[in-house]
Amino acid sequence: MAIIRWQPPFDDMDRLHREVDRLFTEFTAGGEPFTSRAYPAVNITEDTDHYYVRGELPGVKAEDLEIAVVEGRLLIRGERKLGPEDKGANYHRREREGGFFRRIIALPAKVNSEKVSAAIKNGVFTITLPKAEEAKPRKIAVKTA
Amino acid sequence: MELQKKKELKPSAGEGTRPGPLYIPGVDILETQDEIVVLADMPGVDSKNVDIDLKDNQLTISGRIDPVASEKEVSLYSEFGWGDYLRTFTLSNLINQEKISAKMDQGVLRLTLPKAEKMKPKKISVAAG
Questions:
Q1: Per residue in B3-22, pLDDT tens?
Q2: How far, rounded to the nearest angstrom, does the alpha carbon of residue A70 sit from its chain's CA centroid?
Q3: What pTM was estimated for this model as a whole?
Q4: Which end of chain B is more exposed for a tag (fewer CB within 10 A), N or C?
């Protein structure tokens, strides 16, 4: 007869439970539920007729920002130029970063790509995407029988 | 470019009068012979909502954002938070307070702090004897 080490039942289950718990706490610990290293960070909201994609691009001019909608995906691309400073200047702190960026975001539903608009104000961009007719919520009237 | 996470100010380090998170703006500080220039990223802040305060050698920059989303909107996905900005620096140089100038352009504050006359390096010529 083989000797099998006794293990408390559900030990593995307990361990799995703890592991999943740990993953979730780490995942949400940053304050924001979704953490992605892609630049720029975006927030997406919706109302009945539109999706709105917003993000922060301080110092980026409208002509340095390109936005396109391709097959249900939104492309945000551009360059953040940090102005040329005096060559003789001595940097005490350098926390701001410049350069090229590119990001592709999958859209939650079909949009009317002809009517997408974008604006940038005070370094915050807003992309307004009108939902396609079939993606809009349809109200169904309930009748009393 | 890689994302630098927005740094939130801990409540112990100062609090705003409005509820909600306060963020620490990222800055570049550079010094030339005549002035100190502070560049601060404060996206969402309009030029009329920036406050700059210099008391003794404590420089405080604060910015208030205007609400971006309308109330009808529902959040689907969120990677960062919106909030006002606050940051304080201690300056080691004497600043000519009257000549401080500030400009807000596309969410970037440019603050020029001219050094006081007596702080400027003076060249002393040495005469041969």
A1: 777 888 776 666 666 777 89
A2: 17
A3: 0.77
A4: C
Q: Which stretches of A48-109 are assigned E, i.e. beta strand?
A: 50-56, 65-70, 73-80, 90-94, 99-106
Burial class (CB in 10 A: 0-12, 13-18, 19+), A23: exposed
Q: Which residue spans within B56-118 are E strands per DSSP?
A: 58-65, 74-78, 84-90, 101-105, 108-114
Chain B residue with the nearest C-alpha to that of A101: B1
- How far A141 CA sits from the closest chain B CA (Å)? 22
Fill in the amino acid letter for A119: A
B34 interface with A at CB cutoff 8 Å: no
For residue B59, the cross-strand partners are B54, B89
Distance from CA of B39 to the nearest CA of A (A): 9
How large is the ipTM? 0.82
Among A43, A83, A69, A65, CA closest to A119:
A65
**Yes or no, beta carbons of A90 and B32 under 8 Å apart:** yes
